[in-house]
Description:
Layout: E1 6-7, H1 12-15, E2 23-27, E3 30-33, H2 38-48, E4 60-63, H3 66-75, E5 83-90, E6 94-102, H4 109-112, E7 113-116, E8 119-122, E9 140-145, H5 157-171, E10 175-180, E11 185-190
Antiparallel strand pairs: 1-8, 2-3, 4-5, 5-6, 6-9, 7-8, 9-11, 10-11
Amino acid sequence: xxxxxxxxxxxxxxxxxxxxxxxxxxxxxxxxxxxxxxxxxxxxxxxxxxxxxxxxxxxxxxxxxxxxxxxxxxxxxxxxxxxxxxxxxxxxxxxxxxxxxxxxxxxxxxxxxxxxxxxxxxxxxxxxxxxxxxxxxxxxxxxxxxxxxxxxxxxxxxxxxxxxxxxxxxxxxxxxxxxxxxxxxxxxxxxxxx
Length: 194
C-alpha cells in the first residue's frame, strides 16, 4: 500500500479508461451528571472536547457525528475509546470506515486522513504513524468516488474499469469489493495503512 498508507492515486492516465438532572452510572467509579440547563450543557461539552476527534473543515464529516459522540460519551464514559465502525469522509471524495472498535480520542482527523481526487492517504507522516492495529492504522473499508466521464468508458465498457480497479487494489495490497458506475463509488478493503 505504499509507505505512507496511500490508496491511489488514480487518475485518467492510471485507468487508461478514462440531554433534567438524569444521572447515569455505567460504573460506580465513573459518573457524569447530565443537565438540561443550556449553560451547563455547554460546559459539559467543553469538558468533553479532549475526548472528541478534531475536525475543522466543513467538507469533511464523521459517523457518528461529533454531537453524537459527545452525547454517547456523557451517557457512557469511555465510549469514545471504543467507537464501532467509525467513519471519516469528505464530500465528493469518499470515506473510510474503520472496522470494529476504534479509539477516536484526541485524533486530529484532517492531519491523519487526507482525501484528494481519486485518493485517500492515512498517516502521510511515517514518523507519527502508530503500529499496525493501533489508531487508524487498521482494517478499513475505503470508498473513493471516481469522477469518470463517458469518454472513460468509450469502447471499453464498465467491466474493463472493474478489471483495472481490481488490478490497482491488488497492487496496493487491498481487496476489491465493488464499483458502481452510476455513482462512481469504488469500494475496497485494506488490512492496514502501512
